[in-house]
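Hey, I'm writing a tutorial for new members on how sequence and structure tokens pair up, and I'd like a real worked example in the thread rather than a made-up one. If someone can provide the structure for the chain below, I'll link this post from the tutorial.
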Amino acid sequence: MDEKVQMQVPNKTAGFREKPGRGFAAGICNNALGLLGGGFTKEVTLTVSRPLPGAAVETVAGAFLLMLMAYRDRAADLVFRRGRSTAAPSRSPLTQAMVINIILTGVTIGTTKAMRTVSLVTVSVGVMSTLSMAVPLALYGIEAWRERHRWTAILVPLVTLAGVALITGPQTGDVDLAGAGYALASGAINMLHAVLVGRLLSSGALTQKQADRVGLKAFAWATFLGAVILSACAAFTGGAFGSFLHWRVAAMMIVGAFLFGTLPRMLYAVARRSLSLGSFGLLGATIPLLALLGDMAVYRRLPTASAALGMVTIMFVAAWIAWLKGRAQRSVSNRHGAPAP
């Protein structure tokens, strides 16, 4: 799944009914749009700007759209001069913990976006997307060790490391190691980002509808903060934003932010709510395969055998972990007599 963050939308444990058709359709579209978003960054953003200004402008456009979604009622009031509703709006107290969470989420958004953009300067979208999955997969070994799955705890990091070595091919020099390092680092930070976003989207509300509304506003402000941080870093390092002032370029960036940022997040939410934990994990495991096919379509050549085998290895590890998590969730649910989410 994408960077980009992905909105953590918990399934309801009680009374959950899987909707595989809708869930898999939304998830596959989300994965495909995420990879196309990487292509947009590489082929469009990086052709008109340096990495940091380009990443900053993409994040600013995404924050602008998220703000419109989060405050759509107020925006409609201003545009159509409607009277304010007499119903009390759904609000959540802005606690110190929530403010800290928003700040940390904004920092991770800006850092992840910057690292992925810098990575795309020297590596393909497929390599970047696959490598960004490697660190979270390898760290699953810690969770497996705590659950006393000793062989899984040992084999998952080793097999993941083998997949990374096959993709990067340090002995052949086919992949730029600096770009690969940025992709790996972005995956590690994105893992922390996913945890923070999950807390944002489930904080301070009594009902699921209120949680969605409050969480979206908090995430929009976190994205805005990430955009401000990225813009400040780009300006401090001498980045130029002049190329984005042309209306066609600006319109292209806003359309790209919607197609490859806002829309995938909505599809992610649909998929997460429609699928069980195991099915959702297996869907995420298809990203390396889609990345491999995408690279073949873009560059019109077959990848090296080593890179292809590495991507398949990462996909195998992701599917393995998804199966283990799905089995564990079913076991817990059966023990408590509730359907598995």
